[in-house]
Specification:
With 412 residues, the protein is of the alpha+beta class. The chain is built from 7 helices and 13 strands. α3 links the parallel β9 and β10.
Amino acid sequence: MPLRTLKVYFLIAVSVLVLAAAAYAVNPPTMRLDYYHTGNATQEMFSFDRVVYEPLPWPGDMSKTIDDTNLGNYFFEVHDQASGKLLYSRGFGTLFSEWSETDEAKTLNRTFSESLRFPAPSAPVKIVLKERREGKDVDFHEVWTTTIDPKGEFVDRTNPPSPGPVLTIQKMGAPETKVDLLILGDGYTEQELSKFETDAKRATEILFSRSPFKEHRKDFNVWGLCPPAHEPGISRPSTGTYRHPPLGTSYDTFGSERYIMTTDNRALRDVASYAPYEFIEILTNSQTYGGGGIFNLYATVAINSEWAPYVFVHEFGHHFAGLADEYYTSDVAIEAATQRIEPWEPNATALLDPAILKWKDLVVAGTPVPTPWRKAEFEAYEKDIQAERRQIRKENRSEAEMNALFEKEKKH
């Protein structure tokens, strides 16, 4: 090939690469609306906090901005204010909705910080927040609206202090072409950051060793980020252990000893904003069995626990896919539903109409619905297990004893 022709091909190739890079860079900035969700068991209200531009571009696919899954307790829409055109929508769950079903919510008002993230618009938009009202019609109803001018003088364009370097644990493509999972660490000191990296890589391998994630590993990017803590571990108030980790995670959320969550939404969002993400898993540097997960909010796991592999995948299922718990004998903070309604979660049913069972295509022909099982035997055994579990926690006995109880239950 003549040298002149080779140079032409080289210039064309460079031009193509430049255009491809430009195509990946066309995503708009990420905008976030922080607001307050206040109320109790029967009332709620919403109030504006701030609007910020996050440091990184929007990590999602701009050709898939409308959510049609019908999942979540809440749903928000971003509409162009002038034309009314729907620009973005997403379903999600909140910590408030869980708390509102506790006994505490019957006698006390509380306020939770929450956030809505979306591709930054170029013109003023109307934000519409909707809530799923579970009654005769299980549907979303508008509960709050506000408007945002992306060029407004009070939109925060400053960035919070960087929490540290972003680790590339697994990169399968540009953020906007993949599902972006961010693994955050909480309760790791500066000297333990290498431990976090090891834990994050271990958690990644755990996730992608299970179906259906292992079949879709190439569809995921995984990033890691860990703001250093002043002291190791997180709070566990039921045992008199108090810490102040950067993300604010703690055991005993809503009085449930194994439930690990954070109410410091601002801190969580500011830290996470330095990495491209659509989903968040928080690894807590703690050993006691625990974790939590809320649809399109975040998930947590006590990564030093012997049962971390099980808890991690379980809680990520809540966060990533909106899956409901499939147990009902363990102690929980929330009260049982007073109405028999069909749950929105894809893996649970009230069998109000067996003819339209959600997973009908998976059921072998001739299987009776509902399907008989050894329900009374199961409940009697689990009642004894839960009583033993409560006694171990009440006496603050070793985690080894709790692990032995779980192993006994698993084998049974």
